[in-house]
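INPUT
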Amino acid sequence: MNAVPSTLLQQTEQLSESVTRPIPGSRKIHVEGSRPDLRVPMREIALSRTPTLFGGEDNPPVTVYDTSGPYTDPDARIDLALGLPALRARWIEERGDTEVLTALTSEFGRARESNAKLDSVRFPNRALPRRAKAGMNVSQMHYAKQGIITPEMEFVAIRENQRLEAVREAHLLMQHPGENFGANIQKIITPEFVRDEIARGRAILPNNINHPESEPMIIGRNFLTKINANIGNSAVSSGIAEEVEKLVWSIRWGGDTVMDLSTGKHIHETREWIIRNSPVPIGTVPIYQALEKVDGRAEELTWEMFRDTLIEQAEQGVDYFTIHAGVLLRYVPLTAKRTTGIVSRGGSIMAKWCLAHHKENFLYTHFEEICEIMKAYDVAFSLGDGLRPGCLADANDAAQFGELETLGELTKIAWKHDVQTMIEGPGHVPMQLIKENMDKQLRECGEAPFYTLGPLTTDIAPGYDHITSAIGAAMIGWYGTAMLCYVTPKEHLGLPNRQDVRDGIMAYKIAAHAADLAKGHPGAQIRDNALSKARFEFRWEDQFHLGLDPEKAKEFHDETLPKDAHKVAHFCSMCGPHFCSMKITQDVRDYAAEHGVDEAKALEAGMAEKSQEFREKGAQVYHKE
Amino acid sequence: MNAVPSTLLQQTEQLSESVTRPIPGSRKIHVEGSRPDLRVPMREIALSRTPTLFGGEDNPPVTVYDTSGPYTDPDARIDLALGLPALRARWIEERGDTEVLTALTSEFGRARESNAKLDSVRFPNRALPRRAKAGMNVSQMHYAKQGIITPEMEFVAIRENQRLEAVREAHLLMQHPGENFGANIQKIITPEFVRDEIARGRAILPNNINHPESEPMIIGRNFLTKINANIGNSAVSSGIAEEVEKLVWSIRWGGDTVMDLSTGKHIHETREWIIRNSPVPIGTVPIYQALEKVDGRAEELTWEMFRDTLIEQAEQGVDYFTIHAGVLLRYVPLTAKRTTGIVSRGGSIMAKWCLAHHKENFLYTHFEEICEIMKAYDVAFSLGDGLRPGCLADANDAAQFGELETLGELTKIAWKHDVQTMIEGPGHVPMQLIKENMDKQLRECGEAPFYTLGPLTTDIAPGYDHITSAIGAAMIGWYGTAMLCYVTPKEHLGLPNRQDVRDGIMAYKIAAHAADLAKGHPGAQIRDNALSKARFEFRWEDQFHLGLDPEKAKEFHDETLPKDAHKVAHFCSMCGPHFCSMKITQDVRDYAAEHGVDEAKALEAGMAEKSQEFREKGAQVYHKE
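OUTPUT
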């Protein structure tokens, strides 16, 4: 442990056991790619043998996507003050198009660095950042357009496949055909397909060159649906150590990316700790920090200080920026008659600035300058929907759709600069209007990935908005949204605690997986099939382990039937032995086995005849026996 | 208190305060119909005035559907040992087509009644049951077909409207057009429309003449989407007092009907306590009790003892029976190759019986005899889907759809007898297959109401199946399902406790309301609009009160900002004062007000011109200022 002794470091040194303990019934594995330093993490769930009663057979392990990083790897040594290993460092270096800076570029960053008062909260092992060499573009989109398959792209291809080839051999792949609404779903993801999707702008691979600790992942409608979890303190709340722990907690349950929405005093330092310890891409909304710098007075925001903020964060390693460049002055009056006006924080800040200056949004007017920064670090755009509807009444209105059209326009500009781009979406939308929204986004934004918050399908359930929004999220994911931003039960009411974060992520893992199934992603149903088989065969532990939250499943089971014996019992707590339908089904199977399939068929045929007799007698079904 | 002293009675005498306390911010009201004894309960939520900052105005109260019965009425005197007032007794009597029996008809019922050992658990104030006079049919469908509008039908019409006329005047009705997939949604529900829907078989009004305590409600795709909650002990679990409390708890949160799935020792007595104290229709699965009577040996079931069970329960007042008459012998072998075989308890019992006897399901062969019983008490059919899929892999397969076709055939037979009928549906179905299921049900069953369990849209989230299934429930409700049977977080894992029941009901109230909004039920959005307006205006208490669960909303809010002052504060806990988008929106409105709408329009026009300039310069958006 290399560290400046401080209370903070003592705190951050130790993550609680609850966020790092191995996930029950499974182990971390790594699949090697074309080079030894390309090792793609996955989680393998071991399954027990089918009991003899049900035919006795081995059940092959199931491999699942793993976002949890080294934290759930018993072989990894975690030292938060050192940060995670920089697994992409060599790949970045090898490309030879970046240079290590001799000092931070942003004024603000330098000021923070030289401020001795911050020593006690500063991440102690900060390396100097990299930037593209003059005239170079280091975005994955740029490489992709040139036909280059980067190690990041290969990593992603392996990761998306989840050893599907291996599983295919072992499992009888039984899956319903999907309805993909025009998505281009592949049977096997090749690195070339990844490259092509990124070049086409249909997918993004957010990985800032200053975040070499990240495990590459991809966001696009032709890949697995991803979810984002938000963390971040606020004026009212938490500290640095707590935020890092929230990060680790979020990825444990399946957050594919994490947005740091901190707005507190040590926003810069908190972000550094988070990025250095994050195996997933980190997104931010730079305007939040910019507003802090002018003490909350939106009208005092300037392009120059915003620009400095972008560079400050780009050099820390933020992987994508939410930029509210579509909040145009002419759209602002369209919100005046809304039920809930502007509910996006970033959107309202920019609206206020526009009104105060009676000028066009500086994020819009300086958009190409922003692109220049983005491509020097490979930061991806998440074009913010500052005018998203905050209630059903405002859904799909002129302000929202006007902004979406502008985001489409900006997407094309970003692509001209080879800057990776995704588009943020609503919000609150009743079910019957969700598809219109998705279709318009695909059309206006040339299939750039859509990244939606929910949408919430009703306004009347404060305290349960993870559910109101999981419904909308599953549907919009099915229709084509690439990443779903989670909503916790505390939405609209307060700041989420640890339990809320877990509940929000679970609701969104469900929505994302339901979407993958509905789109017909190859292999998406393997885990469902394995779990259901385990359920049928009363392999309780396997059922828990295959679930999205093995700990909760076991805990719930044990509330009713805590004894270990019950985890192998051939009936379950809900019905008791007489009523066990699983048991009766086994009798049916035994009958079919005993009498042979022919007899079963004969039975079917014979009864069909009898039934025909019934029908011929008209409605006179009843007859004496 | 008229009671045999016993521990049970002392227990049941007192419902806990948590299940009976008034729902915060609202009061029970009654809307009178065409006769003074026709008083339809509703809940009126009072709203506070809009703060001056936001324009200061009165907010009219919002009336919402109320399933909670007299329990949340401070004026009602609750005595569980007396049961609820028999509000429909006079209506039933007036029709003159029923008679009070001199003794129970069922052998089993008589045996229980004369067994002194049961005195301590028996409901003490049981009246003798009624039955149709010889040759009479007392079903609401029968009256409807003859053009008679019963008080029950008028009650339902008033109830469905929720004082929409009054609310329309007060509120500016802003609601998105729905997509109703061929449903016949009315602007105002008239008693005649109710009659017509019941006559047509498109809706049912489940209210056994022996359950005069029930407040009439209707289940049909052209009415508000309803939800059912299941209660019931099992071999492993609870007693009578607990079950009654579960009933009251379920309807407090919005259960429209409750199914009593008890399988324990005092199944008959428990049911009596539940029915006598239930203001909502009670459903049962009579085969469960029949199986208890033969000690769990399915092959010993006989038509005669099943018939006795039906009569026993019909005379207690059960409002609908799940009858698994579609599990035909020829379908059983179709389940042998399934991943999870037969998962319906009732379905598996009947399958076992069919196999053991190599005979057709006696529920099918005696179906018309069952109809005779149903119409003598007005018990509605809930035709059980004994072959519903228990996992995604088995969804929409030959067994499931074969049974559904048979249920369609049986529906027509039931209708011939003027017996009210709904159809049960799955189960586990991935999103892309849900509509096929709904469409087939409408087609095969002549639009008889569909009553589905979920469906669950993925198998991989044990512990969160209220969410996996709320997604499917919202969608199938939108497509046309009339009632959604809830699923709790404990599904597949254990018996739900009180918290699980509340969570399950909330998930389903959300799904049902999302469906109503999507179908475009007139007025469905009023509550959403009122809540969102309250949210925008920082009327925190109003926001809580308009929510589906006011207690949870307040509790969550108070976790972050417990002080009372924060409930009127003009910013909230999530963002703090600087970041409050609501506050900024108000600035936008003030600006629009100050500068006039004309200026706002001019602004829009002027900026549109400027933007035109931008576009004409091609993608060259950036320009120096």
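end of record. Chain A touches chain B through 158 residues (CB under 8 Å).
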